[in-house]
């Protein structure tokens, strides 16, 4: 489901946004701060310790959606699945987080000219890890194909 | 205030977020609890209680709203990069009229600036009531504390 090309995109400094939902059906939107692809179905997603609603929802093992978008081309994919486990970040995760923030800050600055010092003001203080099991992948790039299911291939 | 009363922050206090400079994000959920999250070109403030969101490609978002009217939108102030999380409830869709025309002009301008002319095309203006607005904390808030 997650081939090498998609894995490289997910692990690049792209825009990462996350959708979750609570038991009452209230949706929540927040950001992710880096992704590590474990295999074709599993990701480790770095989420903000400063987004308590997202944390409650993923700790409950709920459904999760992750959309990755290139800052300049708007190429975009959405992955849907479930949060299967939550754990504290390791030193390696924090290195991934710092690399992601540096790369994303640079990409945003290069795409629209915003000074990096200003962009850095939206970076979260720290991250934890959410394991995500991916059930389906959708094309989210603006255009007529937006929303098309890419994997598994529709019957 | 809570999700059941007037917003703690007013829409006019975060008006810079609605200039359309930085794309927002919107999360919705289906009736069976599957979330959907996508970027959003334009959030337009209608009055102190309502916003209009540009609907360009929102096939899954539109389906979700038909089943569950709640949405969560995060906007960014381009002058400070402060983020705000808004809880919304969908009220109606407009495909003509002054709000639609205003959003259409904005989307056309954004499309021209981003090289997306012919791809970004407004389908409708979706009107939502704002239930709650709260700032999204960042590392800088801890450093400033």
Q: Could you explain the architecture of this structure?
A:
The complex is a heterodimer of chains A (155) and B (145). Chain A is an alpha+beta fold. Chain A contains 4 helices and 7 strands; from the N terminus they run αβββαββααββ. The radius of gyration of chain A is 15 Å and the shape is globular. The mean pLDDT of chain A is 95. Chain B is of the alpha+beta class. Helices cover 22% and strands 37% of the residues of chain B. Chain B has helices spanning 59-67, 98-114, 139-144; strands at 24-29, 35-40, 43-45, 50-55, 70-76, 83-94, 124-136. In chain B, strands 2-1-5-6-7-4-3 form a 7-stranded antiparallel β-sheet. Chain B starts with 23 loop residues before the first strand and ends with a helix. The interface between A and B is large, with 43 and 43 residues.
Secondary structure layout plus pairing:
The complex is a heterodimer of chains A (155) and B (145).
Chain A: H1 4-10, E1 15-21, E2 27-37, E3 42-48, H2 52-59, E4 63-69, E5 76-88, H3 91-112, H4 116-119, E6 127-139, E7 149-151
Antiparallel strand pairs in A: 1-2, 1-4, 2-3, 3-6, 4-5, 5-6, 6-7
Chain B: E1 24-29, E2 35-40, E3 43-45, E4 50-55, H1 59-67, E5 70-76, E6 83-94, H2 98-114, E7 124-136, H3 139-144
Antiparallel strand pairs in B: 1-2, 1-5, 3-4, 4-7, 5-6, 6-7
Main sheet makeup of chain B: 7 strands, antiparallel
Task: Please give the share of residues in helix of chain B.
Answer: 10-25%
- The helix/strand series of chain A, from N terminus to C terminus, equals HEEEHEEHHEE
**Helix content class of chain A:** 25-40%
CATH top-level class of chain A: Mainly Beta
| Cα shape of chain B | globular
Question: How many DSSP E strands of chain B?
Answer: 7
How large is the radius of gyration of chain A?
Answer: 15 Å
What value does the average pLDDT of chain A take?
Answer: 95
Number of strands of chain A: 7
Which sheet architecture does the biggest sheet of chain A show?
6 strands, antiparallel, barrel
User: Helix/strand-derived class of chain B?
Assistant: alpha+beta
What portion of the residues of chain B fall into strands of 2 or more residues?
Answer: 35-45%
| Topology-level CATH name of chain A | Pnp Oxidase, Chain A
Structural class of chain A: alpha+beta
Estimate the strand proportion of chain A.
Answer: 35-45%
Strand order of the largest sheet of chain A: 1-2-3-6-5-4
CATH superfamily of chain B: Electron Transport, Fmn-binding Protein, Chain A
Using the 3D structure, state the CATH architecture of chain A.
Answer: Roll
The total domain count of chain A is: 1
The oligomeric status of these chains comes to heterodimer
């Amino acid at each position: 489901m997650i081939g090498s090309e998609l894995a490289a995109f997910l692990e690049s400094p792209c825009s990462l946004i996350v959708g979750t939902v609570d038991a009452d059906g209230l949706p929540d939107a927040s950001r992710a701060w880096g992704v590590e692809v474990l295999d074709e179905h599993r990701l480790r997603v770095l989420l903000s310790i400063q987004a308590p609603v997202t944390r409650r929802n993923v700790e409950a093992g709920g459904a999760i959606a992750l959309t990755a978008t290139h800052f300049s081309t708007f190429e975009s994919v959405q992955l849907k699945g479930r949060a299967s486990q939550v754990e504290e970040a390791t030193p390696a995760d924090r290195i991934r987080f710092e690399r992601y923030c540096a790369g994303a800050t640079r990409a945003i600055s290069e795409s629209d000219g915003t000074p990096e010092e200003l962009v850095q003001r939206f970076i979260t203080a720290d991250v934890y890890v959410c394991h995500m099991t991916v059930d389906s992948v959708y094309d989210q790039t603006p255009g007529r194909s937006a929303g098309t299911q890419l994997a598994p291939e529709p019957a | 205030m809570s999700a059941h009363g007037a917003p703690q922050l007013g829409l006019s206090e975060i008006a810079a977020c609605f200039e359309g400079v930085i794309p927002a994000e919107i999360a919705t959920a289906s009736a069976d609890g599957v979330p959907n999250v996508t970027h959003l070109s334009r959030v337009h403030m209608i009055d102190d209680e309502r916003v209009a969101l540009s609907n360009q490609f929102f096939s899954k978002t539109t389906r979700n709203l038909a089943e569950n009217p709640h949405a969560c939108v995060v906007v960014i102030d381009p002058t400070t990069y402060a983020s705000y999380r808004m809880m919304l409830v969908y009220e109606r869709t407009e495909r003509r009229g002054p709000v639609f025309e205003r959003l259409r002009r904005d989307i056309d301008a954004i499309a021209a600036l981003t090289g997306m002319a012919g791809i970004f095309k407004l389908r409708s203006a979706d009107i939502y009531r704002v239930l709650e607005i709260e700032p999204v904390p960042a590392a800088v808030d801890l450093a400033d504390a």
